[in-house]
Design a protein that fits this description.
347 residues; Rossmann fold; 13 strands; 16% strand; binds nicotinamide-adenine-dinucleotide; binds thymidine-5'-diphosphate
């Protein structure tokens, strides 16, 4: 199997590449990444495997995507490239429309063009629980049948991409599925998201900004569990065990309030509780997400394996030890260096 991962230099993408290389029968993994602020070639610098190739470029570039599909005779695309942060989408929607919606459109059109030439490329669209909107305190977790009801521009852009994928399945009979997952945590997450941000701030004696009352709930899953779920779905699609157009939810049955997580981080980093600061709430802040994953368990044989207490403490420890990672990914000079190193690979 020859795989194209989009956004492999991002948080979840690098775990998908790492775990994908462990699967017998995987002949090659091409990683197409535009190295935006959240993508770092360094996230995969330690991979020493001739089956792995990094291509610096954008999913919005139809010619480049088509060339990769053709040159590498790609069998399946794992599509993770995205603008992924809700707060940024509130400040500026345009990059979310361009990458999440139009970028997905370009990939789908490239897959369609390949199909018209007799080359089938399967497509796994990686999406989020946020497309379902927000749950009340007593609501049942989301299922694959929950209607889409996105509440912020990031979620709306992901929902639009999901609908576009379904429309290509219906109209052009592409082989495509969508996976939706709850909040991920683990190593190499850009420190704008809750867990790495709070951990690094606690370790560096900086304030920990808690939006509103901090009682919002997310269903936290370890990134390795999510990566393995995506790979399970990919294999099932590839061997024809599941139908085109299917949706799979991944979660961890692990609902936590933000404030509880922050207190735990403070305690595990020996930081002072006085660093916690309640700040203005995020506009339109979703109160609660929880994912039912019965279908993924039943059909794919997948379940989350990593226990929250262990996963969180190992993650905190990872950020404590890997200071060179934090320094390099937040340094503009590093990004410039990578662009110089890899720029020739674009196109
Ligand atoms: P991330 O922001 O860490 O990584 C995104 C990656 O995409 C980066 O490497 C970036 O350089 C790349 N990218 C952005 N625009 C690109 C373009 N035009 N062409 C090529 N590459 C481009 O995001 P993440 O947290 O790893 O999320 C990956 C996917 O998983 C996203 O689709 C996101 O919506 C979804 N998801 C994330 C979570 C989560 O908790 N982080 C949960 C569920 C679903
Ligand atoms: P985040 O990691 O941005 O993920 P998402 O918005 O996709 O769920 O945020 C997780 C939760 O943490 C969310 O309820 C917002 C909250 N949060 C804070 O309270 N303070 C912060 O500085 C950040 C980044 C998030």
């Amino acid at each position: 199997m020859r795989i194209l991962v989009t956004g492999g230099c991002g948080f979840i993408g690098n775990h998908v590449v790492r775990n994908g290389l462990l699967i017998p029968g995987v002949e090659s993994i091409i990683n197409l990444d535009a190295l935006t602020y959240s993508g770092h070639a360094e996230n995969l610098n330690d991979i020493d495997d001739e089956r792995y190739t990094f291509v610096y470029g954008s999913i919005n570039d139809f010619d480049l995507v088509s060339k990769i599909l053709n040159d590498h005779q790609i069998d399946v695309i794992l599509h993770l490239a995205a603008e992924s942060h809700v707060d940024r989408s509130i400040n500026s929607v345009q990059p979310f429309i361009e990458t999440n919606i139009d970028g997905t459109r370009v990939l789908l059109e490239s897959v369609l063009a390949s199909k018209q030439k007799g080359h089938i490329v399967h497509f796994v669209n990686v999406s989020t629980d946020e497309v379902y909107g927000s749950l009340g305190p007593d609501d049942e977790p989301f299922t694959e049948d929950t209607p889409l009801n996105p509440k912020n521009p990031y979620a709306a852009s992901k929902a639009a991409a999901d609908m576009l994928v379904q429309s290509f399945v219906n109209t052009h009979e592409l082989s495509a599925i969508t996976t939706r997952c709850s909040n991920n945590y683990g190593p190499r997450q850009f420190p704008e998201k809750l867990i790495p941000l709070m951990t690094l701030n606690a370790l560096n004696d900086k304030m920990l900004p808690i939006y509103g009352d901090g009682k919002q709930i997310r269903d936290w899953i370890h990134v390795d569990d999510h990566a393995n779920g995506i790979l399970c779905a990919m294999l099932a699609l590839f061997v024809g065990k599941i139908e085109t157009g299917e949706v799979f939810n991944f979660g961890a049955n692990n609902e936590q309030q933000n404030i509880t997580i922050v207190r735990s981080i403070l305690s595990q980093t020996n930081a002072n509780e006085s660093l916690m600061e309640h700040v203005n709430d995020r506009p339109g802040h979703d109160r609660r997400y929880a994912m039912g994953y019965e279908k993924a368990s039943r059909v794919l044989g997948w379940k989350p394996e990593i226990d929250w207490a262990t996963g969180l403490s190992e993650t905190i420890e990872w950020y404590r030890i890997n200071t060179a990672w934090t320094d390099s990914i937040t340094s503009g000079q590093y990004k410039e260096y990578i662009r110089t190193q890899y720029g020739h690979l674009a196109k």
